[in-house]
Amino acid sequence: MNSLIPVSENWTFTEIGGGLGTKDGEWLPTSSFPTTVHVELLKQGKIPDPFVGLNEYKVQWVGEKDWAFKTTFAIKREQLLAPNADLVFDGLDTYATIQLNGIEILKTNNQFVPYRVPVKEHVKEGLNELLITFPSSYLEGKRLEKKHGKFARWNGDASRLHLRKAQYNYGWDWGPVLMTVGPWRPISLHIYEARITDFRISTKVDKDLSAKIEITASSSSPSGTASINIKNSKGETFRNAKAQIVDGQVQFAFAATPDELELWWPVGYGKQPLYEALVQITNEQGVTIDAKSEKFGVRRVEVVQDDLIDQPGKTFLFEVNNVRIFCGGSNWIPADSFLTTVTDEVYRSWLQLLVDGNQNMVRVWAGGIFEPDIFYNICDELGIMLWQDFLFGCGQYPAYDEFLERVKPEVEANVKRLRHHPSIVIFAGNNEDYQIAESSKLDLDYSDESSDFRKTNFPARYIYETVLPDITSRLSDIYYHRGSPYSGFGKETTDQHYGDLHQWNVWHGSQEPWHNWDILAGRFVSEFGMQGYPDIRTVDYWLGGDKSERYPQSKSMNSHNKADGFERRLELYLVENFKHSFNIESYVYYTQIMQAETLACAYRLWRRNWAGKGREYTAGALVWQLNDCWPCTSWAIVDYFLRPKPAYFTIARELRPFTIGMTRKEKKTFANEETAALYTIDTELEIWGTNSTLTDKKATLDITAFDLHSDWTQNTNTAIVLKANQSTELFKGAVPGVPQRTNDGEPYRTIIVSARLLDADGEVLGRYSNWPEPFKFIDFPSVEEVGLLITPSADGESVTLSASKPIKGVVLDVVGSEVKWGDQAIDLAPGDPQTISAVGLNGRKVVARFLGDGSA
Questions:
Q1: Are 417 and 113 spatial neighbours (Cβ–Cβ below 8 Å)?
Q2: What is the pTM of this model?
Q3: Is residue 531, in this structure, part of any structural domain at all?
Q4: Which positions are tagged coiled coil (predicted)?
Q5: How far apart are CA 329 and CA 332, in angstroms?
Q6: What is the mean pLDDT of residues 356-366?
Q7: φ/ψ (deg, to 5) at 222
Q8: Which of 213, 242, 279, 722 is the most buried (most CB within 10 A)?
Q9: How far apart are CA 288 and CA 193, in angstroms?
Q10: Helices 373-382, 344-356: crossing angle, 10 deg rounding
Q11: Alpha-carbon distance 678 to 435, whole Å?
């Protein structure tokens, strides 16, 4: 007998001692399971929606109370005949005491650890009562802080550093303070004769793409027989074998030639075939007593840190199956403040959005959780490369013995759970903890590679440089990186020539203009960002119908933007670049266009830096961030309700297989060394193209320059070749129609340069329009002059946009229910109509915003 019985029915919960949640002794039924307290109180009408208005502050008491959950489950007499019965807790948030039939069987202290408890001697025929009490994790953290000390951190209460709980629960610069509590992952009763206790699939792929597949299994039974059957993606048997279990261990090894193998590739580079390995163990009577299967992919992944040809430093790039890949992607935070409400379908929608946006990598950030299996399964299926942080974020974490005793089983359990996923290409030790040490001037000598570090004021170096690499190398084949950002080679984390970089000198730091992304580049930029408001419908959701709060500076608006100094930063970048108003619809539009322009500019310039082997000056760009955990204004490019912001689309355009980029820069030359009054200005245009495919691409470079205020145009067509898997420089010279001018000469014309890459059949492979900036200086033509025309298709599922003059930043919408648009923040040029999908349009009138449209 081997059965896994869900313990998911008849759950009730109570606030211990009574209070605002329940009366003393009152047990309320849960509406679902797994679950957490806030979710249940909200469904019971006991608390207001913390995502609306200022309600977040009205529910803070929940995290400081003690709670309990209980249920009963039935056991049949024949089930008691099995020699083993275990209760399995996949996740408890966070401190808990578990009693079975009045007997304490377990105490927990880590949200990320699955617990298994033998209960054979405690279960009985008939009904069994399971009671879980959850003391306040927040108060437990304060107790530990008082005992062990208060340490430096960015975001949240400092006591969070002592708890192995999702750190974002304490509030972040994009999320609320909502201290969840409860049984957040499934609970089950496992009845068995013997079980497979560990199952590891290791694939080692050589340079010639031959492979060795090693499978090891551990059994609670010291003897017996084990069989392995590996099926390929078509369901056909690829390898099979049998072996005797010796001392509870069995191992299989298979060699495979390149011709036999189906390699797993990142999206855009090939298919994502998955093998499935099934291990079965049988007892001496030949009866199968347990079986376990895992899907896995075969691929060769290397993190390459080589010297560059003509720049200092080293590369930091990912090579998959001998192909060097530019990684364009996003950072991922938990999908909700209340994780038990996130369905498999929601996870799929998020990750499909990422792939539909031409992205190929996601970074699971350190302040959240190890995501559920479905998340990683979908990444495997869709070909998304995954950067997985360990869960230490923005803090001076301790390393006292009790803390390490909680960390080690967490890391071991999750490395074992995740190691078979082909999508995971790197483990990173933490998020910004080395930066904390640098900024706080902690003990941090990068040349010291041998000390213990636990007695220093940066004790977590012991975790990042000893505990984590030891566990990951022992239990997996996945590359380990000490942190993000981390330079290595004795360099600080801000060094742009080594390792990965968090580039926050746009928005934070020195608050550089976004046009400076080229000089702010790193070898791999794993964080950068710009804020933008979400869809106006999302704004109206958190306002909850309160029209008095419907302006940018209201209390509700402030509460739904958690970034320090966001008002100054938003206005800095807005006022430097745009003429804008404070009408809420306009404010939403202009912040969205600002975000779209900023982020597209980064991807455009950094893909240019992927210039061929030995010249991979920037090998990746991961925007902060893809998603939100609640309705708010943040750096997300898709809001909480899965509504893409315009930035999502501009990034998607910059990550197409073929793109075109331009810069326009002015050079001032003084007449002589003695004067500052006499000078000339030359305006230089540079054009390049990118090609992420593995073959050279012949195309036509079509360039048209337009004078915004006259009928003057100039067009050229040039046959070009875009080199495979790199950028190609295409043009450097004066901007057409912009001659050299002097400081006392006539102001130059407003020239827009539209560039397109055309395939042999005239298909547009990529397009980009370069406008003079800042946009606030442009005297835009009237709405009538630009002649924007929006023509719906016959089936009502798309619209075609055209214009008489160049238009910047077209954002489409309809009144009422939503449309799923195929593009936004669109730049139009005369003679180049663009057709945009509009799923759900159904003949409704389309409204458009664009720069200079005259809207208030």
A1: no
A2: 0.97
A3: yes
A4: none
A5: 10
A6: 98
A7: -70, -20
A8: 722
A9: 10
A10: 30
A11: 46
Secondary element (H or E) of residue 667? strand 658-670
Of residues 133, 71, 126, 87, the one with CA closest to residue 107? 133
For residue 481 the two structure tokens come to: 């990186």
Compute CA distances 95 → 91, 132, 186, 334, whole Å: 11, 10, 16, 21
- Euclidean distance between the first and the last CA atom of the chain, given in angstroms as a whole number: 72
Q: Which domain holds residue 835?
A: 781-855
Residue 612 φ/ψ, nearest 5 degrees: 115, 165
Structure token digits, residue 38: 């806030």
Query: 724 in the Ramachandran plot: left (φ > 0), alpha (ψ -120 to 50) or beta?
Result: beta
Asked which of 640, 655, 670 is the last residue of a domain, the reply is 655
- Residue 364: count other Cβ atoms within 10 Å of its Cβ: 24
Q: Are both 17 and 114 inside the same structural domain?
A: yes
In a domain, 425, yes or no: no
pLDDT tens-digit map of 812-829 = 999 888 999 999 999 999
CA dist 487 and 311 (Å) reads: 16
> What pLDDT is attached to residue 851?
97
Q: How many helices (H) and strands (E) does the chain have?
A: 14, 45
Which residues are annotated as catalytic? 432
Q: In what order do the strands lie in the sheet with 826-828?
A: 826-828, 807-814, 846-849
* Per-residue pLDDT band at 682 (split at 50, 70, 90): confident
User: What average pLDDT does this structure show over 618-628?
Assistant: 98
Q: What is the DSSP letter of 153?
A: B
Q: What angle (nearest 5°) sits at the alpha carbon of residue 527, between those of residues 521 and 529? A: 90
**363 and 230 both lie in a single domain:** no
R_g of the chain computed on alpha carbons = 29
Number of C-beta neighbours around residue 239 at 10 A: 19
248 and 389 share a domain?
no
Number of Cβ within 10 Å of residue 129's Cβ equals 12
Helix/strand/coil for 460: coil
The secondary structure of residue 46, as a DSSP letter, is: S
Say what the alpha-carbon torsion angle 710, 712, 717, 721 is, to the nearest 10 degrees.
Answer: -50
Q: What is residue 634's DSSP assignment?
A: B
Give the closest residue to 728 by CA, choosing from 757, 687, 685.
687
| CATH number, domain with residue 92 | 2.60.120.260
List, in sequence order, every beta strand (DSSP E) within 184-256.
Answer: 187-192, 196-205, 211-219, 225-231, 237-244, 249-256
